[in-house]
Each structure stands twice: as C-alpha cells, then as structure tokens.
Model the fold of this input.
Amino acid sequence: MEGYVDCHCHISAEEFDKDLDEVITRAKEAGISAIIAVAEFPPEAPKILSLSQKYKGFIFPCLGVHPVQAEPPDSQRSVTFEDLGQVEPDIIDNVEKLVGIGEVGLDFTPFYVKSDYDKDVQRQVFARQIDLAKKFDLPVNVHSRSAGRPVIQLLKEQGATKVLLHAFDGKVSVAMQGVQSGYFFSVPPSIVRSEQKQKLVKAIPLDNLMLETDSPALGPVKLERNEPMNIRISCEHIARIKGVSMETVMQATTQNALKLFPKIKQLIVK
Done:
C-alpha cells in the first residue's frame, strides 16, 4: 500500500459538512491512501459508519467515547458511565467494520475534571474500552491530554499491547515508557509550532511513529481549520528532525499504521 495514512482524524466533524467531497479530493491529491476516522461522542457513530461506506476503502472507522464530552449548547464535561453505555452497543454491533476503538483515554485538564471522582470515572470508562479492544483484537486510538503518565500506566496495567497515542503532550521520559511497551505515537501538523512535539519526534524511533492530522484541530496555524491534506507537513517536519527523506518517513509510518491497524488491508481487499 502506497501513500500516507492519517491515523487520527475527525472527518465526521461538522466543520467538514459543507465541503467534505472537496476535502477528500484534496487529501487524495496530497497522497493520502487511508483516513482513520475516530469518534468522540456517542451520536457520531452512525455518521462515521456512513462515511466509511460512502468512501469505502478510504475512510476506516473507529468507535469509542472520549474522556471529555460535549454538553449542549456549547459547554464540555468529563465522561460518564451513561456515555459509555450509549456507545458500547454500537461498538459490539459493528465490530467487523471497525479498525480500532477510539478516541478513548484520559483528559485531566482541570477545566474539565472537577474532582477525583471524575478522574476515577474516566479511568473506569477507559479501562472498559481497553477490555473491549482486547476482546475483539482491535487497537486503541488514545487521547492523553494532561494525563500522559496515568494513561500509559493504565494501558500497561490493563495489558494493552496494540496502542496508538495520538498527539501526545507529555514528557519525553514518559513517552519512552510507551515506546518500551511497543506503543506507537502519531504526530499532527501542529508540530511546526510545538517545541514539545519536536522534542518527542527527536527521541522516539521512527519505528514507533505514525502520521495524523487530528483534523479539524491541531493544524499548522492555530485556530484555523485543519484538514487531512496537511499530513505532508507532519511528514516533512519528521523528515527534517530525523535527517531522512520524506519518502522514508512516509513508508515507515505507513508500514507502522498497517502493522497496528491490519484490518485496513482486509477492508481494502473486500
């Protein structure tokens, strides 16, 4: 399989509703061969599954519940067991179509987490989704904002081996614990404006790196809509830091993606 794999993308976000066909066209023109679509909120599941059928062989779905949930009209809160209860049946009913479980994880940003109880619920919701991933032999696509160390600790405690840590914002020393466990780390285009991401890429072996955009977030320009075609920016920056060609980075990260998400190849064949 040639081309880039965007390993973590919110292609179902409403920011893409008006021009999704054009976004997909630009992604393909930029050399992307596959987009892994992740869910944050239970109501997204049908849309993500629908997009994976509309763009069959190009968009590949993950389902899960994010540690931070939207609260109408425009506020956010920490995840609850009820949120998990809404999405779990969608995961089980559609497991044959899924390439992973995500976006799951922990987010201990003080604005969202008001108490130790919130943290404990997040841990239990995350642990349950790790269990589902292990049961169905799927990788987890993981969020870890302000929670790098506890995320890696919980993943190891739960015996998770198939792990992608997206846009990891923790210390290099903590990330290396993940590397030692065989975990992968994906790098968004925001690396151009993040010294922390640059340090991370310098330290983590290419064998443990993947590319992502996290579109519509984490683009090269803050507060501007990001889209999958910007994957080349991630690749270019990794190549520069590692002192290798973009082709080398593309091939390595794509092989890593196919190693962690092998169902991509199976679903393309079908």
Summary: The two ends are 15 Å apart (CA to CA). The chain has a mean pLDDT of 96. Residues 116-135 form the longest helix (20 residues).
